[in-house]
Design a protein that fits this description.
The complex is a heterodimer of chains A (about 290) and B (about 300). Chain A is an alpha/beta fold. Chain A is about 35% helix and about 20% strand. Chain A has 10 helices and 10 strands. In chain A, helix 4 packs across helix 5. In chain B, helix 2 runs antiparallel to helix 3.
Chain lengths: ~290, ~300
């Protein structure tokens, strides 16, 4: 953290560190410009929501940050380091954790095992050393188990520790995905639609969790979310994407009411989900 | 009664060998998404290598076996790096068909190096002619070893996959390659290890089968592999325990059918013919797949999970 981007006043001690800095990001899929010249700053400790209609390029942005998609142009810096030169696992080791829209959980493993794999980047002893019934790898394994259990307890997932993930309901699987990402002790957590497929009453629990993580763990969150209630409830800032471009950015209450945003959502009525339209117009009415 | 028990025992032996092979097939399929039709050829190649060590330089059996198992590990590594890795992103059918080519290549190389194996030869082992008597039951030493080895390997593999870091990482890679990579698991190393391990299992199965048959040639694994594949698919192709159970079912069916059909004939057709038996097993297999496309206990369809 020696050369971190400082955007502020050292005397207050309240450093407004820009943790992630995206500049001029362009992503092409064949002839399609999926992301076009995106600039985005994420400040350490904040919760930023990335919203926009389907196909706006939100997941692509996440994939660029975690390293699954290579942009055609632009730069991404994390805590002062250039990310584009690094592979996904190196970025994870630097402190970028993520969840996936479709989970990408290790479905045939138990919840606890999923978390152990989530901590993998932090293990020092090698995989083959782990075959020995003694030595540093065993001690490390014990620590990893301990830490994994703490995270599970904290998310209320402890009763499911030894359940195979595939046998859990969708809502719990979402939480397991988050728990697995947390096991990697990230500084920046990327959440791809954490509320999708989760029943409304569990969404409220999730929202509580999201808020707590940021304050308790000093975690920075970037989330993609279609559920406007969740966005409204947790995000401190919202960035709206449409056709790969940034439409606008700012506080949730004001941004979600802007005519351009409403048009982006409602202008394509036949494609957007009815629920979404409902939510957007709810916000417009308020 | 005793005859039935004897048949069941021998079915158990055949079945455990099918199960052992099915285990390797499922291991590779699960971790690297390759339906490996070259698995029998891998086993045969190592067994032929062992035969050459035993008959050429006349090495003692256990030394030769140890060298052969090392050779199996090496062969697995070479096949992974040279064959499976370049095809990693290819569609599953392309990979499956490529393994047919790999089987041909392996067999041709063996034939070119050791032409004596083109026709059946005697495979010498220290267990030949020795037998155990359990009550009234007869169990050849080779069969007894096959049972013991399979049970031991299955137990060890289970322990390895459930308890060790490498085993858990292997299962994780099989579930989601993308996520495993993101978590920093060296997936390339996992693929390499899976092929080496599967190759080792193939070699052990090949040697056990050779010791049982006492006669081998370069293609001696072909009919066995087909039945092992049936075992693997019956088990659902996605779980190791299922593979072993599937193999056992096929082995038992094979032996029980032999007992039932022996001495019977339909017109001029001799029902005791092993060919009839196999035909019946295949027909039963097709019927079963029509009823349960995912195998007896399979959760996942025929695709990579």
């Amino acid at each position: 953290m020696d050369h971190e981007a400082q955007a502020t006043s050292p005397q207050t001690g309240q450093a407004r560190n820009v943790l992630l800095e995206v500049r001029g990001l362009n992503v092409r899929f064949g002839g399609l410009l999926a992301v076009a010249g995106l600039d985005l700053d994420i400040v350490e400790g904040e919760i930023l929501a990335l919203v926009g209609p389907n196909g706006a390029g939100k997941t692509t942005v996440l994939n660029c940050i975690s390293g699954f998609v290579r942009p055609a142009a632009g730069s991404i810096r994390f805590a002062g380091r250039d990310l584009l030169a690094l592979g996904p696992e190196r970025r994870a080791a630097l402190g970028i954790g993520r969840t996936f829209q479709n989970g990408q959980l290790f479905a045939s493993l138990t919840v606890l095992e999923n978390l152990l794999i989530g901590r993998h980047a932090h293990l020092r002893a090698g995989l083959f050393q782990g075959l020995l019934p003694f030595g540093p790898a065993k001690r490390e394994d014990a620590q990893a188990r301990q830490r994994a259990r703490e995270i599970l307890a904290w998310l209320g997932l402890e009763p499911y520790a030894n359940r195979v993930v595939a046998t859990l309901p969708a809502g719990l699987q979402k939480l397991v995905g988050v728990a697995r990402a947390l096991a990697g002790e990230p500084r920046l957590l990327l959440l791809d639609e954490p509320a999708a497929g989760v029943p409304m009453r569990e969404v409220t629990v999730l929202v509580e969790h999201l808020r707590r993580w940021c304050t308790d763990l000093g975690l920075t969150l970037l989330l993609i979310e279609h559920n406007m209630h969740v966005v409204q409830a947790v995000a401190q800032r919202v960035c709206v994407l449409n056709y790969g471009r940034k439409l606008t950015e700012g506080e949730p209450t004001t941004v979600l009411r802007e005519p351009a945003v409403l048009e982006a959502y409602l202008g394509r009525e036949e494609e957007a989900s009815p629920l979404l339209e409902q939510e957007v117009s709810d916000h417009a009415a308020r | 009664m005793l005859a039935l028990l004897q048949i069941l025992l021998s079915g158990l032996v055949t079945g455990s060998l099918y199960g052992l092979l099915a285990l390797g097939i499922v291991l590779i399929y699960r971790t690297t998404g390759v339906l490996n039709f070259a698995y029998g050829a891998l086993a045969a190649t190592v067994t032929c290598f062992l035969y050459v060590l035993l008959t050429g330089p006349h090495l003692p059996f256990w030394q030769a076996l140890l060298l052969s198992l090392l050779f199996a590990l090496l062969l697995g590594a070479v096949v992974e790096r040279g064959f499976a890795r370049p095809l990693l992103a290819a569609p599953i059918l392309t990979k499956a068909i490529a393994t047919l080519a790999l089987a041909l290549v392996l067999q041709t190389v063996v034939q070119a190096l050791w032409p004596q194996l083109t026709s059946p030869v005697h495979f010498p082992t220290p267990f030949e002619g020795q037998a155990l008597r359990l009550g009234g039951l007869y169990l050849s030493l080779a069969d007894g070893l096959a049972l013991l080895t399979t049970a031991l390997l299955l137990g060890l593999l289970q322990l390895f996959l459930q308890r060790t870091r490498l085993g858990i990482a292997m299962r994780a890679t099989a579930d989601s390659l993308e996520a495993a990579r993101l978590m920093g698991i060296p997936v390339g190393l996992i693929f390499l290890f899976a092929w080496m391990l599967a190759s080792l299992l193939a070699a052990i199965a090949g040697v056990l089968i050779a010791a049982r048959q006492t006669v081998i040639d370069v293609q001696f694994m072909d009919p066995v592999l087909l039945l092992a594949f049936i075992g693997a698919v019956l088990g659902g192709l996605d779980r190791l325990a299922g593979a072993v159970v599937g193999g056992l079912v096929v082995g038992l069916a094979d032996n029980v059918l032999a007992l039932l059909l022996a001495g019977h004939s339909l017109g001029t057709l001799d029902l005791g013919d092993p060919g009839i038996r196999q035909t019946l097993i295949f027909a039963g297999f097709v019927l079963l797949l029509l009823l349960r496309p995912r195998g007896l206990f399979g959760g996942a369809a025929l695709r990579r999970v």
